[in-house]
Amino acid sequence: MKGKCGLELAQLSLSRGTVSWGRGRRGTMAGFNVRSVLVTGANRGIGLELVKQFLEKSNPPEWVFATCRDPEGQRAQQLKNLVSRHPNVVIVALEATDPASIRAAAARVEEHLKGSGLNLLINNAGVIMLNTLESETPENMSLVYATNVTGPLLVSQVFLPLLKKAAQGSNQKGLSCSKAAIVNMSSEAGSIQNVFIWHVGQAISYRCSKAALNMLTKCQSLGYGGDGILSIAVHPGWVQTDMGSSLSPEAPLTVDASVRGILNVLPTLSEKDNGAFVSWEGKVLPW
């Protein structure tokens, strides 16, 4: 997904100051048994690290579908390196604002799954425009909303049949990320109560889009919970990605630590968390 000023596929996540592993819920990667996972925006930042850490698990998924806009481009080189060492990684072309691209990606994923469903969909791809109230434009508002809100909506719609199939084929009771789940990568920047690090950057369109993504997550929890699908919004922290660091050099959280936190939290989630907004530490965040 390309934005103006050369900003492409950026993950910006904004969290509270210092890193603390002592708070929030604790999970165990050992108990996280996901047969198939799809990560959008997987060629860099948080998305790439999610793919890497899934592969590092003692019981890695049978299939890790890593999507990006241009699998043959230079930006996908790190993903291609992973494929050479991990045959369970499949790079899939997917432009999250293009319905035809999403449908083609789903068809390819379905071929690999050979009749089974998709357990975990992580809507990670996103963009940011660093505009203020004075400089924000209709074009940027529309572009960021299309990528950060409409994109996850469309991707979830198209992959819903595969998520339902996974839920129906599972013998697990209740809801879980191992059974069938949609994880939307949000940000505390979209918390209307916290409006986190406003002094660092206003990023109006980004904040508005993440607030809308949180509402989409809540709607998905109401619409899909009856089908056995868990829906959750996750704040990954203020992370040292390209965009997180460009906003300010003070980003406190490494990509490795953020993703390890996320993958510790996901196994702890159940029906009581359906539609919630949680941090990488497992804390419930205010809307």
Question: How would you describe this structure in keywords?
Answer:
287 residues, alpha/beta, 7 helices, 7 strands, 11% strand
Secondary-structure blueprint of this entry?
Elements: E1 36-39, H1 45-56, E2 63-68, H2 77-85, E3 89-93, H3 99-113, E4 120-123, H4 138-169, E5 181-185, H5 204-224, E6 230-235, H6 242-247, H7 255-265, E7 277-279
Parallel strand pairs: 1-2, 1-4, 2-3, 4-5, 5-6, 6-7
Helix pairs in contact: 1-7, 3-4, 4-5
Helix content: 25-40%
* Helix/strand class: alpha/beta
- H/E series, N to C? EHEHEHEHEHEHHE
Strand fraction: 5-15%
Overall, the morphology is globular
Task: Please give the order of strands in the largest beta sheet.
Answer: 3-2-1-4-5-6-7
| Poorly predicted residue ranges | 1-24, 26-30
Radius of gyration: 17 Å
How many strand elements? 7
N- and C-termini, Cα separation:
27 Å
**DSSP summary: helix tally:** 7
Most strands sheet: 7 strands, parallel
Tell me, rounded to a whole number, the average pLDDT: 87
